[in-house]
Fold this sequence. Notes:
Layout: H1 20-24, E1 37-43, H2 60-71, E2 75-81, H3 86-91, E3 97-99, E4 112-120, E5 122-127, E6 145-147, H4 153-167, E7 174-176, H5 181-190, E8 195-199, H6 200-210, E9 213-218, E10 223-230, H7 235-249, H8 251-258
Parallel strand pairs: 1-2, 1-3, 6-7, 6-8
Antiparallel strand pairs: 4-10, 5-8, 5-9
Helix pairs in contact: 2-7, 2-8
Amino acid sequence: MAAGIDLKANETPIHTPANPAAIAKIPSGYRFVEPGTLTVAISALNSPPLASDNRTRIGSDPDIAQLLADSLGLKVKLVPTAWEDWPLGISAGKYDVALVNIAVTEQRKMKFDFATYRVDTLGFSVKSISEIQSINTPPDVAGKRVIVGSGTNQEKILLKWDKENRANGLKPVQPIYLTDDASGNLYLQSGRADAIFGPHSVGAYKAALTGKTRLVGKGPLKAYVATTTKKGNGLVYALQEGINGAIHSGAYQQVLARWGEQEEGVAASVVNPPGIAY
């Protein structure tokens, strides 16, 4: 158990009643991947509290997927998906929606529609005995080996900081691209990396769980994590209504509370808000 998180208890889904207003907003011409089912891409590799790669597929993203399916009067089908694969899967109609801790950006809004459900906070984690005490500004990453996900917002921030550092004559950062959480932990603990830059909630969870890491700073920009659907198919408005109904019923708050993400909650879901600016 980490920071009050009971993984065994959290295997039991949280449900919310069917929401007639959300159901009414399902476009008349929309065809679900599987009739009567909301097919949701979730991360195959994220750690709790976002998602888990065990057989029960627990985490806040799977829980939000359950609330959305309940709201729309559907069953839920979770499909573990690599980060690199969700865009094509959504575009090709393989999934109805993706919940892979996807932050809204202006570039992504050109191809996808978004309904927000969490504030996106990023964080830097280091080994608990690391001499690094703070990473909050570009000079703090100069000369550091930083694990970061390819194609993510945190990568763009890191590379922007590195460009600024180089222009100021500072040592370059060395991004380390890994595809699974276990490798990241191994790199950090073995000294092959200096820091991990990723979701703050994951960093906080791991620090509380093992004591082998600690958080030393947060990313500089505020963004929103959102349900992600194909641009223009209209499903986003039903999802927005579903999230807002779950907020009204209190089920949404229960999900965030049991995963220690209360500080990342939204008061209401917003469709296609301004994207993160780098």
